[in-house]
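Lab manual, section 2.4: Encoding a predicted structure.

Procedure: take the sequence of the chain (230 residues), apply the prediction step described in section 2.3, and record the output as structure tokens. A sample record is shown.
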Amino acid sequence: MHRNASRLRWVKVSKQLLTRFSLNVLARGNKLLPQLNSNWLWDLPYGRGRHWAAKGWMNGIFGGWGFNGLFRWTGGFPFSVEAGNGWSTNFELEGSSFVVGPKPKTGVFLDSNGDPTVFQNPQSIICECSPGTAAGATFRATLPGEAGERNNFRGPGYFGIDAGLSKVWDLTEHKSLRFAWEVFNVTNSVRFDAAGSLIGQSLFSITGFGIFNTELTQPRVMQYSLRFAF
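Recorded output:
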């Protein structure tokens, strides 16, 4: 056996010193959950040059219609909880915390003020942010040489539907007029961004901890266009 086989190896990853055993924690949070993606483009088969041809005013009203869209749904995205006690391993990257008690339930909840939070009852979370400072803690801070647990929680996933309706009038052989109505986030769905919301939030300041302040989605937007091609 190689004389160095029994030694504890250290691996340098993104300017951090992590033990090889810590790499299992990193990989676990990067597991991809199911997602569904779909897109469609459908020209209604009615009008000039289509399956059911039409002329004159019939073509002007019923011909040239098209329908298109995009659909996306994903499982929850991972996120970490910062300990907030400084830079125990690297001055450029603050360490994440360790879960030492019952793992808090994640999702979308409302606190006593009606604000959406990623943790259920976040004010009950206790952190041993300095050694020996809290009993019955849920989290503890990183110690010198530790990087913490990364991506060990799951927040909300993404959901969105975009769709468009269009109509083309063929005025002459080389001239046409196209009208389009496009809607982004058709259902006006709201999906919160747990990872983005917890940036800058730490267990040192439990007031306001876990409150969503960023979103994965944007409010519904509609746009109209009229294009003349020649």
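Check your result against the sample. The chain has one domain: 33-229.
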